[in-house]
Amino acid sequence: MERKNLLYEGTNKRVYETDDPALVIVEYKDDAIAHNGAKKGTITGKGVINNRITNVLMQMLEEQDIPTHFVAQHSEREAVVRRARMIPLKVTVRNVVAGSLSTRVGLPEGTRLKSTILEYRYKNDALGDPLINRYHAFALEICTREELDVMDRYAFRANAILRTFLAQIGIELVDFKMEFGRLPEGSIVLADEISPDTSRLWDMRTGEKLDKDRFRRDLGGAEDAYQEVFRRIVSNIK
Ligand code: C5P
Q1: On the CB side of 47, how many CA atoms lie within 13 Å of its CA?
Q2: Which end of the chain is more exposed for a tag (fewer CB within 10 A), N or C?
């Protein structure tokens, strides 16, 4: 498998064509942004870590009947994934109050939720990814009802699987964000990444934040936190 033309470059990743039209190569970068681009920086080594964490977790979900775009790890920073038409929606699952939910409803971070929350954001940089509901998604033709039902099902199931797994390694899955794509024949797959960049992971014993909030909030130690999540995940796999 060889890397061909660059198809897309974002803050965190580059996507390349390959000699197979059905497959692309994703390359994870160390660059990081926060607050809709107002804060820019680097988390050294995060590309390697996020590639490996995402690949392990995607494989785990795939084995438990959640279709994903993941095919194989290609190098330290790269993965081969199925080419999908991305749906411009960020699907967030929340188990505990944190981040923007804390601000929006006025509850302190760490407040337990009686049940799991699912949120949707319309993925649009210029608009700052506004929060929308399912009726917006259908009316704006972001996706169909059937597709959203499938995404909801995969999101809840992924949450149950990841939450249980992470609890075994002493990590609380506070919230995380998913993105989905359509394969050429139309079926939905989980795509993008699942990493400390796209989730909130709290040490169950100390409450310490082991995710991108260390960078967003200038807490320091982001590199070590990502490394710690990685170490716990791989030492618990196979
Ligand atoms: O900021 P907010 O509380 O809405 O974030 C919810 C979840 O979505 C967090 O796990 C965060 O890491 C993730 N997120 C993301 N990309 C963004 C914004 C939030 O992955 N641009």
Answers
A1: 19
A2: C
Say if ligand 1 is within 6 A of residue 214 CB: no
Query: Is any ligand 1 atom within 6 A of the Cβ of residue 36?
Result: no
Closest residue to atom 21 of ligand 1, CA basis: 36
| pTM, rounded to two decimals | 0.97
Looking up tokens 């704006």 gives 140
Residue-level pLDDT at 237: 78
For the CA of 212, the closest atom of ligand 1 is 12
Q: Is the CB of 209 under 6 A from ligand 1?
A: no
Structure tokens that stand for 185 in this block:
């024949």
CA atoms of 236 and 8, how far apart (whole Å): 34
Check: CB of residue 156 under 8 Å from CB of residue 96. Answer: no
